[in-house]
Amino acid sequence: MDMSNQEITLCASNAYNKKFYLNDNFKGLPEAIKEELQIMCVLYTEDVGGVLELVFDEDGNLEFRTSYEEGDFFYDEIGSVLKIKQYQNVKRELLEALETYYRIVFLGEGLDEEE
Question: Rounded to an integer, what distance in angstroms lies between the CA atom of residue 108 and that of residue 25?
Fold first, then answer.
């Protein structure tokens, strides 16, 4: 499954319609990981508002992307930056493991690379 040169959404949470989305391509992830992603994303949108997407770029890096509706005065831009930095620190191991999973399963990178 060659997915190079494209971005793939892992999951998203939307404060406006109170929904969480997990890409079907990742249904093979362990339930505990899927639950942790859901909790993390939903808590973000409950605290900050707007929409949060976790997206793999074409190189397999996991990015946090946020957006909000025009005129949404409840969206907390400063809180958004702080919350994402907090997740990147506290959930570093999870996020790195997801990047590794994506690179191996979706991009076909080998495990024989030495650090």
Answer: 15
pLDDT tens digit string along 17-73? Answer: 999 999 999 999 999 999 999 999 999 999 999 999 999 999 999 999 999 999 999
Cβ–Cβ < 8 Å for 62, 102:
yes
Cα separation, 47 vs 38, whole angstroms: 14
Could you count the other beta carbons within 10 Å of the beta carbon of residue 34? 15
Question: Which string of DSSP letters, residue by residue, matches 15-82?
Answer: TTTTEEEE-GGGTTS-HHHHHHHHHHHHHHHHHT-SEEEEEE-TTS-EEEEEE--TT-TT--HHHHHH
Total-model pTM? 0.88
- Give the torsion sign (CA, 43, 93, 58, 104): negative
Contact 76, 69 (CB under 8 A): no
**45: exposed, middle or buried (C-beta count within 10 Å: 0-12, 13-18, 19+)?**
buried
What is the distance between the alpha carbons of residues 65 and 73, in angstroms, rounded to a whole number?
A: 19
